[in-house]
Specification:
By secondary structure, the chain is an alpha+beta fold. 24% of the residues lie in helices and 27% in strands.
């Protein structure tokens, strides 16, 4: 049975925290819990799902700022991802938050770092890990080829791509990752991104101004 997905917008950045679960067993995962824990907990209750793990696409505070607190609230379930190259971001969440007037963000150390070629499971469904640096050095994309579905974080959006104007950003690397790793996934692959509406690889191949040929 295909996994179900529900989006809970969190933080002032309207980040798409995503609940993924199997309707039969109710087992699932919380992807990118950036903050606003009461909203995430309400979403979990409404769907009736039981989170077994937390997945992080990258280390930015709107994606990872609530991960440590959520893990604690959910009896210590494991946190998987992102790639270890984002450790410096996860180690600086509290300081970054304070710099933006957000009090109470906690640094987080995942239970498992992810690398290119790894797999993660959600309720028995397998996602392969693509390391797609550029927006952040440790950004990962999670792809469920069987269900034609991907979680792309801030690598690509409907009509746009992740910003790379950070000291550690790399525009060329981001475009390279999109062209060599995401476009080949197939036009029918639907993705949930970190901000804005759901899209498909095909829609972006045709109309995204950053990658359209
Ligand atoms: Zn980001
Ligand atoms: Zn973001």
């Amino acid at each position: 049975m295909p996994l179900k997905a529900a989006i809970v917008p969190v933080t002032p950045f309207q980040q798409n925290c995503t609940l993924l679960w199997d309707e039969a067993t109710k087992r699932g995962a919380v992807v990118d819990p950036g903050g606003d824990l009461p909203r995430i907990m309400a979403g979990i209750e409404k769907t009736g799902m039981t989170p077994e793990k937390i997945l992080l696409t990258h280390g930015h505070l709107d994606h990872a700022g609530g991960a440590a607190e959520l893990k604690e609230k959910l009896a210590g379930i494991p946190i998987e991802g992102p790639h270890e190259a984002d450790k410096f971001l996860l180690d600086g969440l509290s300081a970054q938050g304070l710099g933006m007037g957000m009090v109470g963000l906690r640094n987080v150390t995942p239970d498992r770092w992810l690398a290119e070629g790894d797999t993660v499971t959600v309720a028995g469904a397998t996602f392969s890990v693509l390391h797609c640096p550029g927006h952040s050095p440790g950004s990962v994309v999670l792809v469920n080829a069987a269900q034609r579905f991907a979680l792309v974080g801030d690598v690509i959006f409907q009509g746009s791509i992740g910003r790379t104007d950070f000291p550690y950003g790399d525009h060329a690397a981001l475009i390279e990752a999109i062209k060599t790793k995401l476009l080949p996934l197939g036009d029918d692959v639907v993705f949930i991104c970190g901000h804005g509406p759901v899209s498909t690889i095909g829609q972006e191949r045709q109309s995204n101004p950053f990658i359209a040929a």
